[in-house]
Write the structure tokens for this entry.
Amino acid sequence: MTQTPVIDALAPWLQDQLRVLAPRQAHALLLTGAPGMGQFELAAALAKSWLCEAPIDHVACGQCAGCHAVDVHTHADFSVLMPETIALEQDWPLSAAAQDAIDKKERKPSRWIRVDAAREVLSFAQVTRSRAPHKVILIYPAERMNHETANTLLKTLEEPPPGLRFVLATEASHALLPTIRSRCQAHTMACPQPQQIAAWLSSQTQGANANDMQAWLYASGGIAHSALTWAQRGLTHSHWQALPRQIAAGQPGAMADWDAAEQLQTLLKIAHDLMAKAAGGASRFFADDALPPSPDLRALAAWQQRLIQASRTVEHPFNPGLMLEAWLSDAQSLWTR
Ligand SMILES: [Zn+2]
């Protein structure tokens, strides 16, 4: 079976998917799945395989000049279209104009894929290839395109110039314009078995103790790549398990430094588990004994609704610190009625 450094770097269930997808001739592939299923990792490995100068069974060799250029984010035939916030985190270069505007603090890095970035990538698509067998445009997370950005891409996505291939990865396929979805060949990310996830997580975090690993799996709802992100952020078992009672007491606990969206997701996880417990079901994100006593059921349901409502607008926090304070006092009121 094909084994290259590029394959080795992937989780086992992503390796299988790469072997299946790399030989496909589709000009636009759309990888869909819940957050943390590894769609970006798979999309990047696919792009690399298409750009590789000496692929082995269609999979990137990991050794050639093309593979190297992809690794250091300088491949001339590879464009990545992502929100500026993510590009900056992952060290992908922005256009000179965008970088300049952000450096001069004329605007903040966008959490959306900007239409001018899409236009620039399309003009890249018109230029002749330099060295690779293909040009590749990777779009992630594809649901972060607004209508204007998506519409800018539609025509090229439908009839790409020869040699141009797209790979889109999304964590919310329902949020994509149907016209984008219909122009792509869709692939649903495969869901690994819990024991596969545990073995992989252990191999990725040598020396991690079993309790912390359990906490990462809890925090991620059992989703592999999200669990690894929690591990990399240094979440510990004691921090995670202390959270529900701290929240019930109006304390931020480990959440104090997290971004607003993450705080809200965590409150939703607590609300979910309290609801599940009240209904006689099993908790999913916390051990049973980590949960505070169940509050009044009606108040709990209303709280959950308020959190869901807040999560629709959390991308535009006016003052994250103030929001956390408000959320905490709202949560605390459930237990101090
Ligand atoms: Zn290569």
